[in-house]
Amino acid sequence: MYDILERINQPSDLKTLDKKELSELCKEIRSFLVDKVTKNGGHLASNLGVVELTVALHLVFDMPRDKVVWDVGHQTYVHKILTGRRDAFDTLRTYKGLSGFPKTSESIYDCFNTGHSSTSVSAALGIARARDLKGEDSFVAAVFGDGAMTGGMIYEAINDVGHNKTPLILILNDNEMSISQNVGALSKYLRRLRHTKTYHRSKAHISSFLSHIPLMGGFLQARIRGMKDLIKSRVLPSTFFGDLGVEYLGPVDGHNLFGLVNVLNIAKSMNEPVLIHVKTKKGKGYEPAEKNPHIFHGISPQGGSSKTELKYSDYSQCAGETLIKLAQKNHDFVAISAAMPLGVGLGTFSHKYSDRFFDVGIAEQHAVTFCAGLAISGITPVFAVYSSFLQRSYDQILHDVCLQNLHVVFLVDRAGVVGADGETHHGLYDIAFLSDMPYMTILSPSCYEELEQMLEYAINEHDGPIAIRYPRGSTQATESEGFELNKIKVINPEGRKVIITHGRMAHTAISVAELMENIKIVVLPTIYPVPDELWDELEGAELTVVLDDHSISGGLGMIISSAASARDIQIHTIAFPSTPVIHGTVSQIDKHYGLDAQSVAQKIKELADET
Ligand SMILES: Cc1ncc(C[n+]2csc(CCOP(=O)(O)OP(=O)(O)O)c2C)c(N)n1
């Protein structure tokens, strides 16, 4: 079935194939991807769009000597398949299996770890400068999408590349999509560029042609390049990239393998920063994904989503629908997303209240300062964002929102471990960085009803910055007792071994109490500042454990410990390590790190025996 693909065990095997076999190989890769990813889940549409591009990169470059940095890294499945990981592909994104993103620890062909958007050009520039400092001779490239170009970091990098002229090959994979339709003025600019037949393209063809003429080719090529600036300034339209000092080649058809090989070879011959504008189709070759690329951006494993009796399918949907209800009565708040309206549950809100919804692109830093501007002008911004992507905005939250004590509501989705996406996507650091901020309040619901009530409070009653962190999925732990700021919930008040917890971990704590006696559970819907009521509950405790869906460093355990030391109370913490946390299902990850009910019960028993 995969006759040619099965012969590719390392990239150099590609170079033994003739043109017909290479074209056939692309077809086989597509059907391999569709077969595996529709069954096991993962990022399908983006990978179908880069089949020819990835094959071309491996034909033209000599990896791992030459380096290719993949932006975000969700589109590296083809690269993985061609670099010795085909037979392990069924383990992708599973416990102890292959990562869904590039990992230097996984393969010598992965030169830089990614997961968050818009980092590739900076990383590639660092690698290229290191190459030059060490006097090495190799090619360095970065592959990034038009979505990634909505992230500011890319411009910081291009600014540097164009100024210093470090030879580097930038490959813009333009499919006109982020996860949803791409947004922003630059996206419109790229659309115009996509439809031009530029000089740069014909120049590239001439250049390539000349370079193949024996002896004279190089000389003529150099002469023509010498005339380039003159020609360009007189006749040719400039591009944004060219004006910044990065030579522009394109647009080129990203599904024409041999055209891609040609243009990549030209870029290699140029010895200067060059950007190749590649036009691709997200989901290419698989009709459902071509028609609905946003749905097939990331898909669940077959049978992964089960029907539920609950009011919502997950916390994101709960947040989105509650915002719609609140918007009917309160006309003074708006919702903001950084390129993830569907992921954070704002799809319906964005249509129903299109004038009160802003998708700013993959620009979390801008989103936060934009919120600060809205808030200082009397509009309440609600920024719904994944915990791990909010990390980018540390200074904007501190400098622009918190120091001015502005009323900005942060909906921190995917807080805690997220599962298959792994270390770059776990939301394990938000309590640490948010609790650092002046005036910040942090809430953590342990059921949908509580999230509804918290949203109402945060938008309609609170003043100042406030974050509500909630997990991926739907873990319902406790019933709401009617949310009030600083009010705590106590389960089994007679118990003398106390578990302090919040959010989805309240569910684990309840299971622990079913496994052993004498457990009191204190659930904190308000986790920061730590409610005063907590301390009364610790009086007479034999043992106090904080159970936290967060890194142990800077998490709730550390916050409570530091306050408890003044009261001479010893606190033990069970949380995730501060080293990178693996991927797998959430329950596998919990178990791996001793955060499942059995392990927590065992740990409490050991601690009790020690004291
Ligand atoms: C900082 C950050 N915010 C959000 C995301 C979530 N995300 C993953 S892929 C993606 C879209 C990327 O679009 P593009 O770069 O064009 O790549 P494509 O999938 O279209 O190939 C987004 C928003 C992320 N990875 N990093």
Care to describe what's here?
It contains 24 helices and 17 strands. With 611 residues, the protein is α/β, with parallel strands linked by helices. It folds into 3 domains: 61-74 and 94-198 and 237-281, Rossmann fold, CATH 3.40.50.970; 315-469, 3-Layer(aba) Sandwich (Rossmann fold), CATH 3.40.50; 489-610, Rossmann fold (3-Layer(aba) Sandwich). The strands form 3 sheets. The chain has a 7-stranded mixed beta sheet with strand order 7-6-8-9-11-10-15, sandwiched between helices. A 5-stranded parallel beta sheet has the order 1-2-3-5-4, with helices on both faces. It has a 5-stranded mixed beta sheet with strand order 12-14-13-16-17, sandwiched between helices. α5 (120-133) runs parallel beside α6. The longest helix has 22 residues, at 19-40. Residues 212-220 and 226-235 have low confidence and may be disordered. Thiamine diphosphate binds next to loops. Thiamine diphosphate is lined by residues 46, 71-72, 74-75, 116-117, 145-148, 173, 175, 177-179, 282, 338-340, 362, 364, 389, 392.
Briefly characterize the structure.
The chain has 611 residues and is an alpha/beta fold. The protein is built from 24 helices and 17 strands. The chain has three domains: 61-74 and 94-198 and 237-281, 3-Layer(aba) Sandwich (Rossmann fold); 315-469, Rossmann fold, CATH 3.40.50; 489-610, Rossmann fold (3-Layer(aba) Sandwich), CATH 3.40.50.920.
